Amino acid sequence: MRKVKENVIAYTIDKAIFGDFSILVNNGEVVVKAPWYFSRQRIQEAIKENKNWILKKLKEMEKVSLFKTTKILGVNYAVKIISRNVKSPELNLNNNYIEIILPSRIKGKNNSQIIDIILNKMYTKLAENHLENVFEEIRIETGLAPEDYKVISNQKEIAKFNFDTKEIYINPRIMELDENCIKYIIIHELCHLKYKTHAKGFYKMLKAYFPKYERYDEILKDYKF
């Protein structure tokens, strides 16, 4: 088998002693199956004759394939993967789905890790843009504010208070949660400005700023913070 490129159509030739001539379009690839006696010119002419059909099939292959779903601010988004002739992965956030465009050269490989990296970068950018407003809103409502906060992806906790620096470290995946959950987690961490442990005074302070904290403790029981 050998790879040939004619204009915009790249195709692989598979010659055999037996079998008829055919053009197959599958998984974004064009494979020409031809008897051994077919010349390269004859194959090229067949490609040209079927060019419109081949391009149409390739375009159909670009159509979305569902990878999984994920959440942004508590809303489910379908993650749709498109294979296209691009140099590097791209991400577009639409009204009801996340579109990830992967280079055609890596199609068919195990892309789960690549997709997770792309989604983590998306969450990081969303967190950096969104959390500033959340912290400012809480500061106005409660008067509480950390020395600083940092978005850090390589931590197990969804949020963590650093008692030495008075900073809050936040996992970008916090952006999967709805606004109330995010607000609760941040207020929870800010209460550590006064209390190092979850003592009685800590929960009294937490309740004063977030009366429904027990409900959100239950909602967020699978998250560490």
Notes on the protein architecture:
- The protein has 225 residues and is α/β, with parallel strands linked by helices.
- Mean pLDDT is 86; it is low at 1-6.
- 17% of the residues are buried.
- 36% of the residues lie in helices and 29% in strands.
- The strands form three sheets. It has a four-stranded mixed beta sheet, with helices on one face. The chain has a four-stranded mixed beta sheet with strand order 5-6-8-7, covered by helices on one side. It has a three-stranded mixed beta sheet with strand order 9-11-10.
- The chain starts with a strand and ends in a 6-residue tail after the last helix.
- A hairpin with a 3-residue loop joins strand 7 (90-93) and strand 8.
- The protein is built from six helices and eleven strands.
- The protein has helices spanning 40-49, 51-62, 112-142, 179-190, 200-209, 213-219, and strands at 2-6, 9-16, 22-26, 29-35, 65-72, 75-84, 90-93, 97-103, 148-151, 159-162, 167-170.
- It has three domains: 2-61, no CATH class; 65-115, no CATH class; 120-219, Zincin-like.
